């Protein structure tokens, strides 16, 4: 008996020792499932993709359910695919909230859920359109899943719209504004009265951007698609804008960029210049389908503190020698007509209202955002090539966003209240903000001895497509606050120049210029940094001048946006659009 007791005691002691020494295995952690998003609003007939994250098992497969039914019920609560794509029913269920569940196949007792609110669906027709100034378009709204089909109409989020972006009445009749807004595309929305969280949208482009891309009859107006007839590779072709007309010693020349007319400095004189650009011929990339309008005569080298500019002597009879630029004149029938710019230039100032007529975005309106800008601009020396060089320019002009796009390089930027030339557009970032060489700096680059190059133009006039008024001169009148601002600019420039080299030595800093600050009437130093790239600490003020940091993409004279080139027509290959130079 005693022997048996000792044996039991030893067994118990052994179990205790094993337990205290970590013997045995703990139970595995439970399977967990998380569904994302955890809640979602889906219009009737609409879809939304859910995802399930399964942890603590190698088997991450789940079974999807809606209100407990595998795969759901398409007619009542909605269906869900094996991959988690939920499709709402054609009518709002009762109740309107359903539950989407992901059940673990490794452990069917474990699941994760999300709630779905099925809402009305609103659609607007037509979904996109292009309208001339003051033109009208009737929109219609369809509301599904609700007996109350009433909607409230908005333009850019404003009920009924306004004179700047266009107005819309309670029947959906939209009236375009009398001047092109900035940006030129506005959004018309129909908002459900039954569920104001739901709306349908339509995009409306104000102004005809195709005018600048068409082949013209001689003599052509400028602001049009064009470029060097040799600006192509075996697969790609590139084009830009034939911006304006200059005269030197009685000879007329088309003015544009070096990277448009001179293939970024790779051209030989005199290479032919064609209209429209190679990208706008049909089939594309066919130089034989262009009109030979000029011959390359001179181009500035792409170098630090220089200009991106070139001139091409016109072919007699092929170019309008009044200097007319497409869409720069009075509005007739809702369409801005061609007109020369003013024959005197203007110095750029912050907040100056400006306009340009270019190949891709046609007539666009905006403001000078920054002046005295030092900026790093990337170039490719071949059509569609990678960045091969970066040039730093000084004393540049930068515009507001949504002012230009790929293909607008070479456009003449003018004061929209007087049509006086301000700058030559040549680069931009991914917001549509454009960079320009001050026009006097450009003209000085083409002075020959005592013979100056001057803009061919006429008297002052408004760019009516931007001002909405008759083509009468009305110089921009600065407010008292703007006058105070301009008086303080020279001191801010001096401070900026003292710190500019140090700031620009940071690889992440793309540009430094002068613009507005948070203090009314006080200029600030604006520093552009490359988005996502770390940079050195930048103080909130330099010698008392406030700083402002803007994150953006790199400034490029090529590969800016995807609209300026097409694949060439090669036997056995189909032409296609591709990402190409901002020319």
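Sequence proposed for the structure above (583 residues):
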């Amino acid at each position: 008996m005693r022997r048996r007791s000792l044996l039991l005691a030893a067994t118990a002691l052994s179990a205790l020792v094993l337990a205290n020494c970590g013997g045995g295995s703990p139970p595995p952690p439970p399977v967990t499932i998380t569904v994302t998003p955890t809640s979602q609003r889906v219009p009737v007939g609409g879809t939304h993709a859910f995802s399930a994250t399964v942890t603590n098992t190698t088997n991450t497969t789940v079974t999807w359910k809606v209100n407990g039914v595998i795969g759901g019920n398409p007619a009542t609560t909605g269906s869900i695919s094996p991959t988690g794509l939920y499709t709402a029913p054609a009518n709002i269920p009762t109740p309107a909230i359903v539950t989407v569940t992901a059940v673990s196949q490794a452990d069917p007792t474990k699941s994760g859920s999300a709630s779905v609110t099925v809402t009305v669906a609103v659609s607007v027709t037509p979904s996109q359109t292009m309208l001339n100034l003051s033109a009208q378009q009737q929109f219609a709204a369809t509301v599904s899943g609700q007996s109350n089909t009433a909607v409230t109409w908005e333009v850019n989020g404003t009920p009924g719209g306004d004179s700047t972006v266009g107005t819309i009445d309670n029947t959906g009749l939209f009236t375009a504004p009398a001047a092109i807004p900035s940006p030129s595309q506005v959004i018309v929305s129909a908002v459900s009265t039954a569920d104001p969280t739901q709306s349908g949208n339509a995009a409306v482009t104000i102004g005809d951007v195709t005018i600048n891309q068409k082949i013209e009859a001689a003599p052509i107006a400028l602001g049009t698609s064009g470029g060097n007839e040799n600006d192509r590779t075996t697969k790609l072709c590139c084009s830009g804008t034939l911006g304006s007309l200059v005269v030197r010693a009685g000879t007329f020349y088309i003015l544009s960029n070096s990277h448009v007319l001179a293939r970024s400095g790779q051209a030989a004189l005199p290479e032919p210049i064609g209209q429209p650009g190679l990208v706008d011929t049909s089939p594309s990339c066919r130089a034989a389908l262009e009109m030979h309008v000029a011959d390359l005569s001179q181009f500035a080298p792409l170098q630090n503190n220089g200009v991106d500019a070139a001139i091409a002597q016109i072919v007699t009879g092929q170019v309008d020698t009044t200097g007319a630029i497409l869409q720069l004149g009075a509005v007739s029938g809702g369409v801005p007509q061609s007109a020369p710019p003013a024959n005197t230039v203007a110095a750029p100032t912050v907040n100056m209202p400006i306009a340009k007529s270019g190949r891709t975005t046609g007539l666009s309106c905006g403001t000078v955002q920054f002046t005295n800008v030092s900026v790093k601009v990337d170039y490719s020396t071949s059509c569609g090539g990678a960045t091969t060089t970066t040039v730093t320019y000084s004393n540049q002009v930068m515009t507001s966003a949504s002012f230009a796009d790929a293909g607008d390089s070479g456009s003449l930027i003018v004061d929209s209240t007087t049509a006086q030339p301000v700058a030559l557009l040549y680069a931009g970032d991914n917001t549509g903000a454009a960079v320009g060489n001050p026009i006097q700096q450009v003209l000085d680059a083409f002075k020959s001895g005592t013979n100056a190059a001057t803009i061919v133009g006429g008297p002052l006039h408004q760019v009516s497509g931007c001002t909405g008024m008759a083509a009468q001169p009305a110089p921009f009148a600065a407010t008292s606050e703007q006058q105070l601002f301009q008086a303080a600019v020279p001191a801010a420039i001096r401070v900026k120049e003292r710190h500019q080299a140090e700031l620009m030595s940071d690889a992440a800093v793309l540009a430094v210029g002068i613009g507005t600050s948070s203090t009314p009437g006080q200029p600030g130093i604006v520093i552009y940094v490359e988005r996502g790239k770390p940079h050195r600490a930048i103080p909130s003020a330099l010698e008392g001048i406030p700083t402002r940091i803007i994150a953006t993409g790199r400034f490029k004279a090529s590969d800016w946006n995807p609209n300026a080139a097409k694949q060439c027509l090669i036997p056995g290959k189909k032409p296609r659009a591709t990402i190409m130079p901002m020319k």
